[in-house]
Amino acid sequence: MGTMTTATYNVVLAVHYLLTIRWNFSERRLKKWEPLMLAVPPVVGLGVSLPQIPLDYYNDTNLWCWIKAGWEYEDAVQRTYNARWAFAFAPLWAFIVFITLAQLYLWYTVRGIERRCSRYRKFSSVREQSSQSRSVAQQAALYVMGFYATNLPYTVIAATQRFYNPHTTGGYLALLAVVVFAPLQGFWNLFVYRRKTIFVAVKNSYAQSRDAISSIAKDVRSSVAKDVRTTLSKKGKAPNVGNGPDEKMDAEKDPNVQCSDNTKDNSLDEEKAKSAEDIADFENDGIVLPGERDPFIPTHVSEVYAD
User: Fold this and answer.
1) Which residue ranges does the record annotate as region Disordered (predicted)?
2) 3-class DSSP state for residue 178?
3) I want to staple 8 with a disulfide (CB 3.0 to 4.6 A). Which of 12, 44, 86, 204 is the partner?
4) Cβ distance 30 to 20 under 8 Å?
């Protein structure tokens, strides 16, 4: 029921396009036909589904409950297959052929309008003149391809009778194709009518992702470059040797620091040597420095002597 109802709704949609584009029906005029257009698809779906109940044609068909002879009715197998074509495949493909012809007629109509209008557009290029007909042809082709992709696999199985048998290896790929494509009629319709919006959204999402990745990479490069500059600047300066063992090791490895330390040590040695020479001169002259006393002289004598 669902398959036939969906196909009938698409037939009604194709008729709506014909009335609007080919016969120039106004919206007000279409409103009068709208209740009938909405009522026809459910009636058709029920009309091809309900007669199978009293005939006892519904049985398990691997994927769903559909027209199939039961195990106790082996003599009715051919009759049930004929019922499939009478109540399912024949009406379905009649609708698909009608939709295909309707789309071709729409393209032919638009192309004729463009040719008539091209007489008054002398300065427009041929590509601009045929842009609308190409757009209609592309839209119609994609719309029809959705029907063929959805219904062709199961129709081929029914025509060749290569049904899936779990006890053999035959028919599995065909059954897989049915499982994948049969439920996608609504998806194809959505893609056909919203594909430009989908492509723009995907393109914008890709651009945003690319910009975000570029920004992250730029931040990472900037951070790494900053760390490298900081490390190089630290190695280029003389560290404080007394701050820690690591800095001491760096100081020992750095020749500039070693030269600086050697210069400081030499200056200290020179000052100590000079002070020792001065003290020796004072001692040779018999002079005792303030704050010191001669250990061989009593305290009271040394104080007088110092004065």
Assistant:
1) 231-307
2) helix
3) 44
4) yes
Asked if the model's pLDDT at residue 297 lies above 60, the reply is: no
Give dist(CA 58, CA 38) in Å, integer: 27
In angstroms, the Cα distances linking 51 to 56, 67, 84 are 9, 11, 12
Mean pLDDT score, 241-266: 47
The answer to whether residues 216 and 223 touch, using CB atoms and an 8 Å cutoff, is no
- Give the global pTM: 0.62
* Summary mean pLDDT of the chain: 74
66 by DSSP, 3-state: which? strand
Domain ranges in the chain are 2-195, 247-306
| Cβ count near 249 (within 10 Å) | 12
Q: What does the chain come to in residues?
A: 307
In this predicted model, what pLDDT tens digit does every residue of 261-281 receive, in sequence order?
455 455 555 555 555 555 555
Q: Which residue has the tokens 């757009």?
A: 135
Residue 104 pLDDT > 60:
yes
What is d(CA 2, CA 151) in angstroms, rounded to the nearest whole number?
A: 13
| Residues 17 and 98: beta-carbon distance below 8 Å | no
Task: Quickly list H helices, the chain.
Answer: 2-17, 27-49, 52-55, 77-84, 90-117, 126-129, 131-160, 172-181, 185-236, 245-253, 255-284, 299-306
Q: Quick check: 13 and 140 in contact, CB under 8 A?
A: no
Contact 19, 36 (CB under 8 A): no
